Amino acid sequence: MTDVDLKEYLRPGVTLPFCPGCGHRSLLRLILRAIYELGINIDDMLFVSGIGCGGWIASPCINGDTLHTLHGRSLAFATGAKMFNPKLKTMVISGDGDLIDIGGNHLIHAARRNMPITTICADNVNYGQTGGQACSTTPKGAVTQTTHEGNPYYPFDICKLVNAAGAAYTARYLVTQTSEVISSIKKALQIEGFTFIDVISPCPTQFGRQNRLDTTREAYKFFEDRCVTKEDAEGLSPAEMEGKIITGEFSNGRS
Ligand SMILES: Cc1ncc(C[n+]2csc(CCOP(=O)(O)OP(=O)(O)O)c2C)c(N)n1
């Protein structure tokens, strides 16, 4: 697919609102590409987002029906829309802070209800839009605007949590794993249940700067060095797994 094809899926005249090197820009392309490859008519879809840089992926960028909602409430709005019109292919695209922190309760219960919604978490491991504060996926030890001496807490394994709550499908990939992200989104869109993809999307401007990752390359390498596939993780000891981010598809055995 060429850029020309993708342009049809972008709101005419839109200026992409992302900082240089932001993973959200790539994630937007991967989402559009998955939709294109599945041949879904974008008019049959609704894109819902909350507040944050991640919330900008759908709105203003996508040339389709979008609902840009309150911070943390994207899944509540998406649930209402889906219940009103079950034919609507409903996709939530929002940040880690929006979906997992302020919106965490909606996430757990959308998974428990197995709501037929595909949720893409644009996970830049901090609150990018408000200056780079710590969130619940910030790696232990990372410097943020609220953890000057290093984050003292372990991050959520959000796929495990969403799986345990009852989701039909969860997956996690780094945004540079482009073919995996695309096929995972395609798979999620074809499952009639709650599907959740945690896409690690580096934020060189806030997270990178505060962690002395001085180039975009370094900001991406930070995550490349930490990501380990589900299969490789099985052979590692707890000490070797410290600080690692597991990538792959996860099932709770129900789907
Ligand atoms: C009710 C409410 N609380 C706080 C804010 C301030 N706020 C705006 S965006 C944001 C964090 C967004 O983080 P995330 O969802 O991770 O998105 P990112 O910008 O990192 O992509 C916060 C706390 C708000 N807009 N509304």
Task: Give me some keywords for this one.
alpha/beta; Rossmann fold; eight-stranded mixed β-sheet; 255 residues; binds thiamine diphosphate
- How helix-rich are the residues, as a percent range? 25-40%
> Alpha-carbon distance between the termini?
32 Å
The level 1 CATH classification is Alpha Beta
In terms of structural class, how would the helical and strand content be classed? alpha/beta
- Please give the count of helices: 11
Q: Biggest sheet: strands side by side, in what order?
A: 2-1-3-4-6-5-8-7
Biggest sheet descriptor: 8 strands, mixed
Query: CATH-wise, what's the superfamily?
Result: Thiamin diphosphate (ThDP)-binding fold, Pyr/PP domains
- The CATH architecture: 3-Layer(aba) Sandwich
Task: Give, in order, the helices and strands.
Answer: HHEEHEHHEHEHEHHEHHE
Please tell me how large the radius of gyration is: 17 Å
How many beta-strand runs?
8
Which molecules are bound in this entry? Answer: thiamine diphosphate
Strand content: 15-25%
Q: Let me know the average pLDDT.
A: 96
Globally, the shape reads globular
How many structural domains can be distinguished in the coordinates?
1
Named CATH topology: Rossmann fold
